[in-house]
From TrEMBL:
It comes from the Bacteria. One of its GO terms (molecular function) is oxidoreductase activity. This is Putative aminoacrylate peracid reductase RutC. SUPFAM superfamilies: YjgF-like. Keywords: Oxidoreductase. InterPro entries: RutC-like_sf, YjgF/YER057c/UK114. Its EC number is 1.-.-.-. PANTHER family: BLR7761 PROTEIN, YJGH FAMILY PROTEIN.
Length: 120
């Protein structure tokens, strides 16, 4: 099996020892991704932009997403992201899980992880 690793150059990749995405077994596995901004909506949009870029680099896209996991320190913040998620995933959304948990830095309000079909 061929494995392709995609690096985005983010600071945590080198510090922790991981890559932004791995293409293997017919899937693109995108690591948990945080975005920048002062609000959960801004961070959500930025994280999705980063994920979209890596999916494109992998020859895939949000239309091929099969699973998404949302991690938030405050579950009550999740509803503010729903319009952006609906816009991103459209009429064919993936299965989804939302987890309330601590993130690597208190400034982060949402982290998003995606699995998509590769080259579909």
């Amino acid at each position: 099996m061929t494995i392709k690793r995609i690096h985005s150059g983010g600071a945590f990749e080198a510090k922790i020892g991981y890559c932004r995405a791995v293409v293997a077994g017919g899937f693109v596995h995108v690591a948990g991704t945080v975005g920048q901004g002062d609000t959960v909506e801004a961070q959500c949009a930025d994280a999705l932009a980063i994920i979209g870029k890596v999916l494109t680099e992998a020859g895939s896209g949000f239309e091929n997403a099969v699973r998404v996991t949302y991690m938030l320190p405050n579950a009550a913040d999740f509803e503010a992201c729903w319009p952006k998620l609906q816009e991103t995933f459209g009429a064919n959304p993936p299965v989804a899980t939302m987890i309330e948990c601590g993130l690597i830095d208190p400034k982060y309000l949402i982290e998003i992880e995606v699995t998509a079909l590769a080259g579909a």
